[in-house]
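Team,

Forwarding the record for the chain on the shared tracking sheet. I've put the sequence and predicted structure together so nobody has to dig through attachments.
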Amino acid sequence: MVSELQGAIIAAGSGERLRKSGEDIPKPLVRIDGETLLARQARAMMRVGAREVVAIVNSETAEVIARDRIELPAQLRLMVRNTPNSMESLLALGEMLAPGNFLLATVDAIIADMEFAKFIEEAHALITNREVRGFDGILGVVKWRGDKKPLFAKIAADQRIIALGDDEALMVTAGIYLLPTSIFAFADEARRAQLSALRRFLAMLIDNGVRLGAVELADVIDVDEAEDLAAARVAVEVRR
């Protein structure tokens, strides 16, 4: 566990693919084991040391939370903003974060507690051991199992990520990151380049010399469609 960690959750998307498959509510409010994805991710972060978590949600999600009096952790702060894409969601979160490192996750990345703890401990160790590796940030990765639209990661023997993109590779990103707030200095450049996704922003960081490392996780379920949600619910039940 890392003390004085700040957490951030990207939860402002519309979740269209999941809604078309039958879950006609905002994705952050879909429930697994009786708990919303949003609350679940926030509590997972708090269990690994996040003293406070901020999540960006769109106005529809905020309205449903208020209307249905949905319970959320007291340490979770909501930023309500209708951002056009995931990169802008990340940049908006930067307005709420104190300088330093922060734990970032997408709301739909379902990760076991043991894997979450493994990631934060190994990521923190890699970042703080700057004399050996000199990493600025760390991305969680998993072996590609044929999921749709992954962000492939090419990784060197020293755990350094040398490329992120659409070119097929053994590993893909897992939706969990430990990053420095210094990345927000690249916001203007990213907008000038008209980038429109978190994945493009991360790739741009590498192109600009930001050293990103990788921590491999055993399994992460990215909830995009009905079958993903079903798999996540089974996995959670098995872990009980």
